[in-house]
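Deliverable D5.2: sample structural annotation.
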Amino acid sequence: MLVHPVFLIFLVPLTSSKRTPPKYTIDLDQHPSQRWNQVIKDHLEFLPGVVEESNYPAPYTIHSRTSGPSNTQNPYFSRKYIPKPLQPFVWWVASKVDRFFSTDTRQELEGIARESGLPLGEIVGLNILYDIAAFDRRHIFGLGCTSIVAQNEKGEIFHGRNLDYDMTGLLKNLTVHVDFMKNGSVLYSGVTFALYNGILTGQRPGAYSVSLNARYSGAYIDNILMEIYTKFKRPVSFFIRDVLEHQESYTDAVDALSNTHLFSPSYIIVAGTKKNEGVVISRNRWSAASVYQLNMDANQWFLVETNYDNWKKQGDNRRITAIQKLKEIGKINFNEKSMAEVLITSPVKNNLTVFSSVIQPKNPEIFDSFTWVWD
């Protein structure tokens, strides 16, 4: 999360309760256009909030399953996150780029648009929001996250994740936990949002887990050039889901996430199942700027990433607070409860935190038991 110091007073969390997000199965053997139907149907009551955020005018009706207004309208998020001169191009891209996606991805998006009644361009725009907004924009108060990888004295790996976002109230009602099934078995899992078929927080059971934190680097023209170069085929949330689906091992996942060209800069955090299998990949658009690894032999038993390069000055206190808490707890008996304790410490958890997850790929059920939406 990118935060000006003047805003830090607002990041102290108020008294809040937690709940488990609803759980769904996405059957990858089913036709892509039908996979998300139940998720959308169960969340229709919350979709008018998306329309309001997107500033769609009357007489558009959310439940009509009609095509809605023209896809060329500028939505709320483009006015907030994208420089004004660039907005016409960005929204045109959002309404056109689905043709470059894989067949499965495109058909899933078409099915989500059909069931929600929202225009396809709006659905695409929501799914590529991170990619078109990830440039150096320190004056904007917006996207963010905290991700932690830690291992205890036994070499057991734990992955902690807080997702922070400034549309917090809306996203809390849309947060879902999803198992992606293939041939009757769970291939991978993720915490995501209704209307969003990408993955920013996920696990391949028994192999590895992945989370993405926003990184703001370069000018917005860099994003445009990479979008053109990659032919719009690789929004980061779609790519992470593709890695979870096709890369079977921690090593292969780290290699793909480090070296594949992407639209936008990012921090990608990966945890495995064996000693020292934990890494923070600070991504440029072309490749990794840094790959920072766990190293128990050097007493580097944890890694903490927020939204700043770990080799530079931090812009807020989330990372230093998490580090202090990890040192206080120590590695001797560190476990999933210890990680949860770090995640709920203020300002690591703040009133922009949508959900928290603790993941241990070696024990996949922990992802289910330790994921909470904060109300």
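Annotation notes: The longest strand covers residues 185-193. Residues 215 and 307 are 6 Å apart (CA to CA).
The annotation will be released with the project's public dataset once the embargo ends.
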